[in-house]
Amino acid sequence: MDFRRSNLGFFVLEGFFWASYCTIFGFTVTILREYGFSAAVCGTVTTLQCAVIMFIQPLYGYLVDNVTTPKKGFIGVMAVGTLAAVPLPWIFRMGAVVVVLYMTFISMFVYSAGSMVDAWAVGVINKTKGMDYATVRGGGSIFYAIMALMAGNLIAPFGVQSLFILHVVLGGITVLVACFLADPSGLESTRGPHISTAVQVSFGKAVSVLLHNRKYVVFTACMCLFNFATRASNTYLPMVIENVGGNSGHFGIALFLTAMGEVVFMLLASRLIIRGIPPQYIYITALGILVFRYVLMATVDNLWVLLATQVVQAAGFGFNLRINAEYLVNVAPEGYQGMAIMLSGAISNGVGCVLGNYLGGELIATLGIRPYVWVCTVVMAGSMLIFLPTVLREHRQRVAARNRYLLGE
Q1: pLDDT tier at 170 (50, 70, 90 boundaries)?
Q2: 28, 122, 139, 218: which has the highest count of C-beta atoms within 10 A?
Q3: How does pLDDT run across 359-387, given as a tens digit for each residue?
C-alpha cells in the first residue's frame, strides 16, 4: 500500500472531520451565549456532552473490534450525526430544556467520533510502513485552525446560523472522503501491533482485560486529570477572553493559534521519537508545559498576551496528541486496540470533563475566573505526578540496558 497516498488520504479525512467538529462543538458556549442562554445552561450542555462520551465511546470501541470495522463504524456515526445537525437552527429557537436535550442527543455522533477516527487511522498506520500519525493528525489541527479563525469572524456579520450550515456541508464531505479510504481489517500488517477484529469477546471481558493492564490504567488516570484541566479550561475560554476585553473573533484567533501550533509540535515529537527519545519522556514534558501555560493564564491581564500563551498550550497539546493514541495501542493486548483508544477516551473525557465542566462552572460562579485557573494548574501538576513513576521506570530500564551493552553482556 502506498504510504504517501494513505498519509494524504487520512490527512484530508482528519482535516474535514475536525473542521466539521469545530463549527459546532468548538463554539458550543459561544453559540449558546449568542442565543441568550445563561452560563448555567452552557455548563449543563457541556457536562452532559462529556457524560455522553463516557457511555457511548466504549460501545463504539467494542463494535469496531468485534462487530463491524473502524471504517464502517465511523461512516455510520458521521452520517447520522451530520443529518441530526440539520434542524439546529430551529432547535436553538426553542426553550433551554429542548436545547439541552437535543445537544446531548447529537453529541452521541460527531462529538464522540474523534476517538473512532483516531482508532481507524492508527489501525492503518500500524499496517502501512512509512505512515506517520503526526502527519495524519496534523490535517485535523490545520483544518480546525483555519475553520476556527473563519468561524470566529463569521459570527458577527452572518450570525451563528452560518456555523450550522458549515457543519452539515463539512460533515457530508467527511463521509464522502471516508468512503474512499482503506479499512485496516482489509490490510496485511507490515509492522507492529494493529487494530484487529480477530478476538471476539464480550463487552465486559474487553473492559476487564484493559482495566487489568497497569500501564493502560495509569495512563488513563493521568488523562482524566489532563482532561479535567484542559477540556474545562477550553470550555470556559470564551469567558476568560471576555474577562480581559475580548470577543468571539479573539476566541477564534485563540483556537487558530493552538491548532496550528499543535501541528508543529506533533511533527517535532515524531522527530524526537525517530531519534530514540521514549514517548514517556515526551508526554511528561507535555504535562509540564501545560502547568506553565496555566500559571501564565492565571496571571496575565492583557488580551494579546493571553492569546500568545495559546502557543504554549499548543506545545503541550501537540506532544499529547502525538503520543496518546499510539501509546494506548502499544500497551493494549492484541485485538483490543480499538477498544483501548475509545475506552480510555470515554473514561478520561467522561470523568475528567464532567467533573471539570461542573466544578469549573461552580468555581467561576462563586470565586471568579482566576481561582478556577489555579485549580486547573494544580490538577495538571497532579497528572504529572501520576505519570512520573512510569517515566522513572523507563529511565531505569534504559540505564540498565546501556550498562549491559557497555559490559558486553
Answers
A1: very high
A2: 122
A3: 776 777 777 777 878 888 999 999 999 99
CB atoms within 10 A of CB 234: 21
State the burial class of residue 158 (Cβ atoms within 10 Å of its Cβ: 0-12, 13-18, 19+). Answer: exposed
Indicate the residue type of 220: T
Q: What is the pLDDT of residues 14-36, one digit of tens each?
A: 999 999 999 999 888 888 888 88
Mean pLDDT for the chain? 83
In angstroms, the CA 77 to CA 114 distance is: 11
C-beta separation of 303 from 246 below 8 A: yes
End-to-end alpha carbon distance in the chain:
40
**Any idea which of 9-18, 42-51, 192-201 has the lowest mean pLDDT?**
192-201
Among the listed residues 298, 317, 293, the one whose alpha carbon sits nearest the alpha carbon of residue 244: 298
Encode the chain in three state secondary structure. Answer: CCHHHHHHHHHHHHHHHHHHHHHHHCCHHHHHHHCCCCHHHHHHHHHHHHHHHHHHHHHHHHHHHHCCCHHHHHHHHHHHHHHHCCCHHHHCCCCHHHHHHHHHHHCCCHHHCHHHHHHHHHHHHCCCCCCCHHHHHHHHHHHHHHHHHHHHHHHHHHCCHHHHHHHHHHHHHHHHHHHCCCCHHHCCCCCCCCCCCCCCCCHHHHHHHHHCCHHHHHHHHHHHHHHHHHHHHHHCHHHHHHHCCCCHHHHHHHHHHHHHHHHHHHHHHHHHHHCCCCHHHHHHHHHHHHHHHHHHHHHCCCHHHHHHHHHHHHHHHHHHHHHHHHHHHHHCCCCCHHHHHHHHHHHHHHHHHHHHHHHHHHHHHHCCHHHHHHHHHHHHHHHHHHHHHHHHHHHHHHHHHHHHHHCCC
Torsion sign across C-alpha atoms 249, 367, 258, 52: negative
Residue 259 CA: distances (Å) to CA of 64, 136, 224: 28, 14, 21
- The single residue listed with the C-alpha cell 479535567 is 228
Amino acid identity of residue 317, one-letter, is F
Instruction: State how far the Cα of 409 lies from the Cα of 394, in Å rounded to an integer.
Output: 20
